[in-house]
């Protein structure tokens, strides 16, 4: 009985800690994107899209949902954030078990978007590692990283 109880506790503890996210940081994400083989652009603005239709699925199987979206706002260039043309972007909402990435329709965010041969893709994962609130501190950090005048991670 003790062995079964211990096994059950281990299984429950493993499920409870299945998703462990490091706190997101603009400077850390900027460094990661700069060193990646893929190309990234930093966008500040909102995405317009139609939410997916909810379906009954097995929550133990990781899934993703891809949706077309339109971005309106600014992109990060050498001179800071400047007005961007309207961009077509694919939103890739990633799920791990029952944890899914999400963003709000038409709500401003600061995000790192992958530039692929097929267009722009925003990977929205459960840890939101490439998505940030559009607060002044994050915006200033992104601009400072781009200028090379300081790209220090926040201490939490």
From TrEMBL:
It comes from the Bacteria. Keywords: Signal. Residues 1-18 form the signal peptide. The keyword Signal applies. This is Uncharacterized protein. It comes from Octadecabacter antarcticus 307.
């Amino acid at each position: 009985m003790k062995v079964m109880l211990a096994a059950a506790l281990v299984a429950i503890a493993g499920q409870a800690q299945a998703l462990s996210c490091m706190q997101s940081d603009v400077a850390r994400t900027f460094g990661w994107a700069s060193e990646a083989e893929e190309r990234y652009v930093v966008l500040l603005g909102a995405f317009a899209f139609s939410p997916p239709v909810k379906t009954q699925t097995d929550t133990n199987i990781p899934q993703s949902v891809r949706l077309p979206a339109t971005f309106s706002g600014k992109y990060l260039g050498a001179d800071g954030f400047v007005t961007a043309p309207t961009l077509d972007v694919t939103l890739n909402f990633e799920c791990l078990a029952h944890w899914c990435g999400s963003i709000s329709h038409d709500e401003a965010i600061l995000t790192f978007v992958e530039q692929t041969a097929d267009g722009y893709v925003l990977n929205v994962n459960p840890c939101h590692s490439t998505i940030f609130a559009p607060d002044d501190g994050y915006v200033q950090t992104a601009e400072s990283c781009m200028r090379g005048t300081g790209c220090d991670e926040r201490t939490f």
